[in-house]
TrEMBL record, chains A, B:
Similarity comment: family membership: Belongs to the ROK (NagC/XylR) family.
A Pfam family of this chain: ROK
Entry coiled-coil feature ranges: none
Protein name listed in UniProt: Sugar kinase of the NBD/HSP70 family, may contain an N-terminal HTH domain
InterPro entries: ATPase_NBD, ROK, WH-like_DNA-bd_sf, WH_DNA-bd_sf
Length: 400, 400
DNA sequence: GTAACTTAGTTTTTTCTTTTTACTAAGTGG
DNA sequence: CCACTTAGTAAAAAGAAAAAACTAAGTTAC
C-alpha cells in the first residue's frame, strides 16, 4: 500500500537523519550481529554518526546489544541485533477456505498463530470474523509487553495500488471490496499501520524480507492453489513489490498458455488456470467442491487418468515457471500453495520442465534456485506482517 | 550499467545536497517551465533551498531561465527549462541489419543521426565500424559547443546486469561479448559515461524517460522484429529498468505459448517466436534471409496463405501482449520494431485480441493505452542515450 | 492613480546533522 | 610491560537546509 503519491520527498536534515537511522536498522536486520564499526564501513558513514544512530535505536528499543565479537588484534566490537522483545506485527490471510493469522517479531519469528476454516462468505462476514480473531490474537499472552506496529492483510485477488481496494477475488466471488474499511467498522485503527495486499505478493515479500545473510536480488513466489498467482519483489536497498498499474502484476493464472484452448472462468480461452489450478484438476477428475482436493486424490494416485492429469498440470506449471524466468528473471523462485501437497506426480514434471529448459538461451552454469515450500500455511500472513515492518523502516512515518 | 553494487549510499551532507539538486533538475526535466516556487511546493523544499539549487544548476549550465509566467495576483515566476545548448548524449543501436546512431539533448531532441546497413559480422568488426561512426558523429558540426556526457549502446540480446557482458545475441550469432571493451580498443573512454543495455530495454527506457507532462508510472516496450523482446521501466522518482537476474527479463519471445508446439531456435518447443517473429514468418512463407521481409510480403498481401500467416502471427502477438498485461501490468504499452510495418493484416488481430480480452479480470473502464510506433528506427539508440543522462542525474557521479 | 494585497524570489540568521579531530576503551603480540 | 590495532565516544567544526525577514513585481479594489 505505502500510498504517498508524492513523487519527491523533502530533502531536509530530518530526512537525512531518518535515512541514516533506517540504513543502520536495515543493515542489522539483514545481517544480525554487525558491530558499529561494520555498519560504518558498509553504510559509508563515520563511526560517530553510526554511534549516535545506534544509540537512539537502542533507546527506542529497535536494537539490543549482544556479545563481544572476537578480536583480531584490537578492541572487540559489540554485536548488534534486532530487539525481539519490543515490537511485533500482525498479519492475516483471507483465503478461499479460511483465515490465517500470525503475530511475529521484526526478524519474522512467529510468536502466535491462528488458523480457522471458514466457509465461503460475504466480505462483511469475513471481515467481522477476522476482526474478532485479530482481537483474540492481540490479547494472547505471548504478545504481552509487545508494542504492535500494525496489521497486514493478504487477500486472494488483485489489490489496486494506492487505493486499498480488492478489485476482484475470483474464487471468493468478491468484487471491488474495501476490505480495510469493513474491518475498521469492527476494529479501531488505533494509530497503527494497516496494509492490504494480494496474497502471492505478500508471500513473495515476506520470503525475501525475512531472509538474512545472503539475500537474493529478486524473488518470485508462485502460489498454486485453487487459482494460480504470483508475486515478485526486488530491489537491493528497499524491497519493492511489483504491483502493476491495476494490481494485476503476477496474475499468471490468466496468461494464455494454449491459444484457442479451454474456456477459463475469466471468459478467455487457454488461460494457464485451465491447465493447472485447483479448479481445473477438480474438473478433470470430477472432484466435488466440498471434498478436500488432496484427500480425494490421495487414494486414486494409481489411476492412469489421475497420473496423466497431474503430469499434464505439472508440465503446464513448469511452462509457467519458465515463462516467469523469461519475463521477470528473478534470482530465486519459491513455489508454495496447497497444490504443492499433491507431491511428486504433480511437482516432478514441473521441476523437470523448468530444469531442462531454463538454460536454453543462456548456458549459465548456475541455474536459478527453485525452492518448494511444503507447508505454506502461514507464508502469506507472515508476508503481510513483513510489509508493516517495511513500512515503518522505509516509510515516511514518524516511528523511527 | 549503473553498476555500483554498494547497497547503501553515504548519507552525508553532500549526498543531501546532490539529492536536492537532482530532485530539482528532475522536476524541471519532467515538466518544463516550472518556476522556483512550483519546485518548492512539489519537492517540499523551502524557497531558499530551491533558490540556491537552481542558482548552481544555472551556473553549471543544466538549466536556463525562460519567460515570466502569467501572474495570478502576485509577482510572476520565471519559467525554468533544461538548457538545450550545453550537454548532449550519444546513443547507438547495434541491430541485426545495421547500426543506428543518434546524438540528442537532455530533453531527447535528436541533434544528429546516422543509419548504416551492415551485413552480419563479428563483434570485432561491428565494434570497429561503430567506433568510426561514433567518431564521425562526435565531429558533426551540429554538436559544436556541446559537452558530451557519454554514450549508450543498445544490443539485440540479454545483457548481464552489473557485468557489461552481452550474454547472447541469437540473431547475430554472438555469445558472451564484452562489447564495450571491443569498442574501447578503438575509442578512448575519455572520462565519460558508457552504458550498455539490451535493445528493447533501452527503447522502453527512452520512451518513458523523455516523456514530459503526464508520465505513466510504468511502461513496457515490445520490440517485434527478427526476434521478439520487451523491456519494462517503472518507478516514479528514478525510472528503473527491470533487467532480471541474468538480464533475461523481457525475453517474451521465448515464453511458451503453445506447449508441444514447433521447435524454436533455442531448442524448446512452442516458444512465442515460433508463432510471431520475423524468422517464423519468413519460414512460413518461404521468404529468403536476403530479401527484405516487408518488401517481399507487400505484393503478396492478397494471397490467402499470407493473410492467414499474418493473422495467426498477429493473434499470437495479441496473446503475448495480454500475457504481459497479466504479469507486469504496465500503465502503458508501446509496440515497435520492424514487424509493425506489416500493417493492418498483422496489427489488427493483435490489437483486437488485446482489446477484447484485457478487461476479463477487471471490468476497468479505462483500458491500458497501447501505442504503435510506426517508425521505431531510432527509438533504441535514443533510449540508450537516455540512460546516460539518467546515470548523470541519479547516479553517484560528480557531474551534478 | 494609488494603496492593499498577493505571490516570487533573495538575504540573513538559526538550527540541525554530519564530519573531523582527539580521545578513551579493550583487546593482541612481542 | 609496552607497542600496536581496532572499537567506540566526546567535543569542536563544517556545512546544509529551515526560518524569518526582506525585496521584487505583479493584480485588484476603490
Amino acid at each position: 500500500m505505502s500510498s504517498s503519491h508524492q513523487p519527491h520527498r523533502a530533502g531536509d536534515l530530518l530526512f537525512l537523519k531518518r535515512l541514516n537511522r533506517s540504513t543502520i536498522l536495515e543493515l542489522v536486520r539483514r545481517t544480525p550481529g554487525l558491530t558499529r564499526a561494520d555498519i560504518a564501513t558498509q553504510a559509508q558513514l563515520t563511526k560517530a554518526t553510526v554511534g549516535g544512530g545506534v544509540q537512539s535505536l537502542l533507546e527506542q528499543g529497535w536494537l539490543c546489544e549482544g556479545e563481544l565479537q572476537k578480536s583480531s588484534g584490537g578492541r572487540p566490537g559489540r554485536a548488534l541485533h534486532l530487539n525481539e522483545q519490543r515490537f511485533a506485527m500482525l498479519g492475516a490471510e483471507v483465503g478461499v477456505h479460511g483465515l490465517r493469522l500470525v503475530a511475529c517479531t521484526p526478524s519474522g519469528r512467529v510468536l502466535e498463530s491462528l488458523n480457522e476454516r471458514l466457509p465461503l462468505s460475504s466480505p462483511e462476514v469475513a471481515a467481522e470474523r477476522l476482526a474478532e480473531l485479530l482481537q483474540t490474537l492481540m490479547q494472547s499472552p505471548s504478545l504481552d509487553g509487545y508494542h504492535l506496529l500494525g496489521t497486514g492483510i493478504a487477500l486472494p485477488g488483485p489489490v489496486a495500488p494506492e487505493d486499498a481496494i480488492l478489485r476482484v477475488a475470483p474464487n471468493l466471488g468478491w468484487r471491488e471490496v474495501r476490505f480495510l474499511d469493513l474491518l475498521h467498522a469492527h476494529l479501531p485503527r488505533q494509530d497503527t499501520i494497516w496494509v492490504m495486499e494480494n496474497e502471492a505478493k505478500s508471500a513473495a515479500f515476506g520470503e525475501l524480507y525475512f531472509r538474512t545473510g545472503s539475500i537474493p536480488a529478486s524473488l518470485v513466489y508462485i502460489s498454486a492453489g485453487t487459482g494460480i498467482g504470483s508475486g515478485m519483489v526486488e530491489g537491493n536497498r528497499l524491497p519493492l513489490l511489483s504491483r502493476g498499474h491495476q494490481g494485476l502484476a503476477g496474475e499468471i493464472g490468466h496468461t494464455v498458455l494454449q491459444p484457442g484452448g479451454l474456456y477459463c472462468h475469466c471468459g478467455n480461452r487457454g488461460c494457464a488456470e485451465t491447465l493447472v489450478s485447483g479448479w481445473s484438476i477438480r474438473a478433470a477428475l470430477g472432484i466435488n467442491e466440498e471434498e478436500d482436493l488432496i484427500e480425494a486424490i490421495q487414494p486414486r494416485l494409481q489411476e492412469p487418468q489421475v497420473q496423466l492429469t497431474l503430469r499434464r498440470a505439472g508440465e503446464a506449471l513448469g511452462a509457467l515457471i519458465l515463462n516467469l524466468h523469461h519475463t521477470q528473471n528473478p534470482s530465486e523462485i519459491v513455489l508454495g500453495g496447497s497444490l504443492v501437497r499433491l507431491g511428486g506426480p504433480f511437482l516432478e514434471p514441473a521441476l523437470a520442465y523448468f530444469r531442462d529448459n531454463q538454460a536454453r538461451l543462456l548456458s549459465d552454469s548456475r541455474p536459478v534456485p527453485l525452492r518448494v515450500i511444503e507447508d505454506a500455511t502461514l507464508v502469506a500472513a507472515r508476508g503481510a506482517a513483513a510489509q508493516v515492518l517495511a513500512n515503518v523502516i522505509h516509510g515516511s512515518n514518524e516511528l523511527l
